[in-house]
Amino acid sequence: MKSFISTIKNIWKIKELRERILFTLLILLVYRFGTYVLLPGVNRAVLEAATSSSAPTDILSMINAFAGGAFNRAAFFALGIMPYITASIIVQLLGFAVPYFQKLQQKEGESGRKKLTQITRLLTLAITLVQGGAYLSWIKSQGAIDPNIPESIFWISNVIILSSGTIFAMWLGEKITDRGIGNGISLLIMIGIIATLPQAFIFEFTSQMAAGGLLIFVIEIAALFAITMVCVLIVQGIRKIPIQFAKRMVGRSSNIPIQGARDYIPIKVAAAGVMPIIFAQALMFLPSTVSQYFMGETTSSTGFLAQLTDISSFPYNAVYFILVVVFTYVYTALLVNPKQYAEYLKRQNAFIPGIKPGKPTQDFIDAVTTRVTLPGSIFLGLIAILPAVVTLFGVNQLFAYFFGGTSLLIIVGVVLDTLQQIESYLLMRKYDGLVKSGKIKGRSSSMQTIGSDL
């Protein structure tokens, strides 16, 4: 406890770090405030009555969890940041299929990234307009529109407000990234998820106590702790590819052979981090949007499309698992470029022992990355569908969101990233880190050592 208090004091002593933490907390407070600002023309009492009786396995409940409860409250940030995530998916996929986007991603450096960011923002706006219309259709289906307001004014004004809310949330996330601590977009998603944790915990506790199952509740907490620890191990797990430097230039002297000068390339088991889960989850929102537009209020409770909106159904979890595995490989391919590694090693006069420079090195790194990514992707897929599994053992759906799946992975990944950034500030000022030995490895550390220069 004394060490923990000392660490907090050290964090507060660093002016820049203190300002970044306070700025992040302020932005998160603004975001949470926006999740309680009601859209004009919505009858909150009617909407609360309708959502309170909705099935907990409905896909809309998952959207509401990501939005921190704003979805069911018809708030300013009802759509949250998910339209931006969907736009990011589309842009990432276009980077594989369209030469123009490939050029922007791989060859044009900072200017290319700026163009991609601008394209993503415009696409986010277009997606928000579509999803905003679907969301208002859902509100209308619940009978929660104030009859005293003309319907045309209600639709036009609220589509604009919902779009503004998503763009504003995206701007808040970018400000956190630039002037705060951690990845802003991920933090906004995490804070929305954590907002529902106390309610889920209390509801599960009271339910088990009413049934006389205190021991069952303790077992659930122990299982949750164990699963969290496994997630931390997988997120931080790496496969080290050893490299050796043949010789280096020292000052103005000639090349001096350095015997035993070794380093390594860290290939993470889950190099893609939480992004495949977010991407897959965003795509799983599409069936509900389609059903709103093309099937209207009388959507049948049977059929494949209906099952894709039920997070407890087998088709939903099968598709979800496959998407997570696929996106893990896709996003890892974007992060880990074997060709760039091979070229870097060649420029630095370094090599992997037993592997020839050039194309053989590239192929070796690619093969190792593929093999390491396979168990990582399967693990991410299994964790993603774990909430549906634990509900079969009697765990309440609301609490199951945190028992595994998207919520747990996002929380673990974002917390590790944030702690890693805080620790870097502490170490730069020659303070002790957050742990007694070693260092915290967030997702950003996947390009450490030689990869940091790529």
Automatic annotation (TrEMBL):
Segments traversing the membrane? 21-39, 74-101, 122-140, 152-172, 184-203, 209-235, 269-294, 314-336, 372-393, 399-419
Q: How does it sit in the membrane?
A: Multi-pass membrane protein
Give start-end of the signal peptide.
Answer: none
Record key words, sorted: Cell membrane, Membrane, Protein transport, Translocation, Transmembrane, Transmembrane helix, Transport
- GO terms for cellular component: plasma membrane
Report any one BP term from Gene Ontology: intracellular protein transmembrane transport
* Main location (coarse class): membrane
Pfam families linked to this entry: SecY
Q: Which compartments does it reside in? A: Cell membrane; Membrane
Tell me, in a sentence or two, what this protein's role is: The central subunit of the protein translocation channel SecYEG. Consists of two halves formed by TMs 1-5 and 6-10. These two domains form a lateral gate at the front which open onto the bilayer between TMs 2 and 7, and are clamped together by SecE at the back. The channel is closed by both a pore ring composed of hydrophobic SecY resides and a short helix (helix 2A) on the extracellular side of the membrane which forms a plug. The plug probably moves laterally to allow the channel to open. The ring and the pore may move independently.
Family as reported in the entry's similarity comment: Belongs to the SecY/SEC61-alpha family.
According to the record's subunit comment, the protein's assembly and interactions are: Component of the Sec protein translocase complex. Heterotrimer consisting of SecY, SecE and SecG subunits. The heterotrimers can form oligomers, although 1 heterotrimer is thought to be able to translocate proteins. Interacts with the ribosome. Interacts with SecDF, and other proteins may be involved. Interacts with SecA.
Matching NCBIfam families, A to Z?
3a0501s007
Return the HAMAP family for the record.
SecY
Instruction: Identify this protein by name.
Output: Protein translocase subunit SecY
Q: What is the lineage of its organism?
A: Bacteria, Pseudomonadati, Bacteroidota, Saprospiria, Saprospirales
Q: Gene encoding this polypeptide?
A: secY
